Predict the 3D structure of the following.
Amino acid sequence: MRVLALAAALLTAAAAPPPSAIQALLAAYPGQFVVDGPELVWPDGTRMAWSTGERSILEQVSASYPRGMPLDPPSEGADPGRARNPALLAKMYGDCRRGEVVPHLVSIPWPGGRSVRITGVNHIDRHLAAVARELDAPEWRRFLWPMAGTYVCRAVADTGEPSMHAYGAAIDINLGSGDYWLWRRAPWRNRVPAEIVAAFERHGFIWGGRWSHYDTMHFEYRPELLGQGSEDAD
Ligand SMILES: [Zn+2]
């Protein structure tokens, strides 16, 4: 009987729909993978458990990200979106240490007649180009240029995990108007206008200013935390 009960429980588990966070992940990255029970399955047959392991995929996508205005200081210890699953991201964007990210980089127009390079995976080039069009006004120029960097093959300074910059899926705007917890070692401060944050969030980018480990010049593409998909109109 116990074996039967176990089999029944397994069947029920297999039939249960994935949690809403995993459904949001599917919607955010259409065509990248499907869900088969407790695993994501990629087109090449690779399987990844989404609920197990340290910094699991479920943990990555379950963060509660407070989009929209106002830009309040993050609550103590809150870092929504800062935990990431390196296996998932490397599978999607490539491993920069193996030269897999650079071939995806494309150049897009940036306000003030400039250009920046960002990955084309998940149409991030198009989403960032949409942000650039919305912010192409004289009052925003000094926040957006000089731009402090997009693709860099490096780890996050304090965690040692790959940065979203290592996947070509993040941008730092002007250092001169940014505040970073590791340099300041002081309470949260923000000098980036809400209009700029809102434009990025509309197109799938979360903002490092919403982390208690704040990095207010940093934006990275994480539509799963914004209830968006990469096919959304931009
Ligand atoms: Zn950054």
